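Before relying on records like the one below, remember that each one covers exactly one chain. Contacts with other chains, cofactors or solvent are not represented anywhere in the record.
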Amino acid sequence: MADAAKPARFAAKDRAFVALVDGAFSDAARRSGPHLLCRAGCTQCCIGAFAIGPADALRLREGLAALDRDDAERAARARRRAADSWSRLAPEFPGDPNSGALTLDENGEPSATFDDFADDETCPALDPELGTCDLYSARPHTCRSFGPPVAAGEGYGVCELCFQHAAPQEIAEAAIHEASAAARHALDGVAVEAGAPSEPTIIAFVLSHP
């Protein structure tokens, strides 16, 4: 496949994947009713670093480039926040601070040192004045599925602000089932073919190293 076709192939595959994830979220939100409290200005889920894969990284970089074209000042503010965040995080980054690659364990997951890393760091994509995401349309998979209960093994992961007074049956009925690991890995492979780094990283690194 010609190199020029690889970004276009990623874009097409990514649109389909995002539509699938967003559709599952919308359906879960409908089933959640008043128990789902996600609103503009609620930034609980924007605190703390988490690992993102190649597809998320490439989507964010493309989203920031698009924001540059549409609103250069807003994009510049996001880059400044990212640079400030990365300057704080780089000295203790559990991986290679030059490439942004997280150190992985024998299972291919971020090492145990990542568990307590940057738990209080605000995502640089968050506009602190408006309490909204400047890169909402390009946000990572984790952000797209956060809010409704997420089926995890035999239980459910639930936002600590939502579903506080929900019965177990209501939680089960509102649960979102994430896209399969195979689908996510396949999309990551297409992103790597399109030029994304293969190792997981964090949002602050991606937005400060366009």
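Strands lie at 95-96, 101-102, 126-127, 132-133, 150-152, 155-157.
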